[in-house]
Amino acid sequence: MKTKYRKITWLVVAASLGWWAGAGVDYLATHAAQEHATGHRTIDWPQWGGTPQHNNTPIGHDIPTEWNVGKFNYTTGEWDPKTAKNIKWVARLGSQTYGNAVVADGQVYVGTNNSGGWIERYPSDVDLGCLICFDTKDGKFLWQHSSEKLPTGRVHDWPLQGICCAPFVEGDRLWFVTSRGEVRCLDTKGFYDGENDGPYTAEEELLKESKKPYDLNKEADVVWVFDMMKELGISQHNMCSCSVTGAGDILFVNTSNGVDVEHNYIPAPDAPSFFAMDKNTGKVLWTDKSPGLNILHGQWSSPTYFELDGQAQVIFAGGDGWVYSFDPAGDGEGNSKLLWKFDANPKTSRWELGGRGTRNNIIATPVFCNDKLYVAVGQDPEHGEGIGHLWCIDPTKRGNVSPELAFNSADPTQEIPPKRVQAVVPEEGDLTRPNPNSAAIWHYSEVDQNGNDKIDFEETMHRSCGTVAIRDGILYIADFSGLFHCLDAETGKVNWTYDMLSAAWGSPLIVEDKVYIGDEDGEVAIFRHSADPEVAMEDGEPYYGTQDMGNSVYSTPIVADDVLYISNRTHLFAITPEGK
């Protein structure tokens, strides 16, 4: 990881700005005024990215750019609001929070661990994966779903990581993936409505039989459970983490099937990596086991759904670094129906343990916007920095739409199958050819912007676990090396970059004329939304400055009903003008 001594730099690509440099401020002001005039603000943000397309661009009004989180007793977790500014409420979370908040029907949900000790039967020293529900009015704790750790340990259920995904909420139902390999459907009202919504009634019975103190109103009301380890034979690596999405009655799930504890082999290569199920009953509709033996590490990306030219598509970003598009209906016989697949790594890139290689898997969620699909490659953040790739893909293509195809000199007419460690090994006679059916619209990795015939740190797209956010043809993405990139969404041309001097795990939020991004040092940088660096920044710093959250921000800021929600490692903050 680079240190805080890196120089803050930004790149001005004057030729690419053209008329925009002069017109940007007026356009943004007009755009914001139109939003205010229509009053069509985003009320709910009911899944990761808000919609199945996952572009984090809600409509909000008067979203603050200044706040003070106040002070905390980090032994007890108690909040002292005396010095707080623009904080509506604060809710305590666990000791490590990676789940992104979602908001629906007056409730906000966050995945975390159990260090907050919200329910009596599980004291704070009991390690759990927790999905916690709060009231959006005042941050009042409503209920918690508790996932006990698997006895197999960190190979399947890593200690203290909690629930790292976001739920999907629709009406009075919520679906999410537990860290222990289950898909669960919950009643959003918990037991406050006086009903056990079953038919999964075992939860209430287990509580009664456990002889542990409990308050039923603080417990999640479980409707059904699907155990992927038991029913599908998966072996997730470290944990299951997939922010599910749906279309109609279909739910789409990445199983997180991965490598063994030593990272040497895949215990369940024939188990599904991706599947569709009936969201009302939990019945499996179809499955797909790609990439099988070519899984590099784990599979923690989340599915994306969209419709284009009359064809619905669901996107699975695989643990082999390939992007797969399936027909959401399957083939009608319990199997997937592949539309296209795309290799997001250079064919000669090589996978090496501990992040020492150049081949990457995909943790980020693909984003669909303006008939294009955007996705970045990366690795487990513990693997450190490394070269990355950001792709813009044309989803109308079919078949193998990778930029290159792989062959071997022994039979240069026959395409060779994908290989796990290195797709093309020149020493073994392997070779590549450009793919005439490539769906790559543009690719961003290393660009000599200043023309000095070398690639500087600020001219590199590094590994990323974050998604893009796009509005008005402008794309933003953060990488794990701490660079925040602004590109032209149509061409991939770099507008500017900013060095946050700290790793970024999350994704950008665009709302009104503002762009928010958090980092591992606990700061949220706030730029003005513009392709012109002189508009986005002032004297080389974010136009609206940075705000200190008091602890690492691994999550993504969201806006719902004109409230800005940001969670750091230990607390969830609802931020509004004057805290109202």
TrEMBL record:
SUPFAM superfamilies: Quinoprotein alcohol dehydrogenase-like (SSF50998). Coiled coil: none annotated. Residues 1-21 form the signal peptide. Keywords: Signal. Residues 464-528 form the Pyrrolo-quinoline quinone repeat domain. This is Outer membrane biogenesis protein BamB.
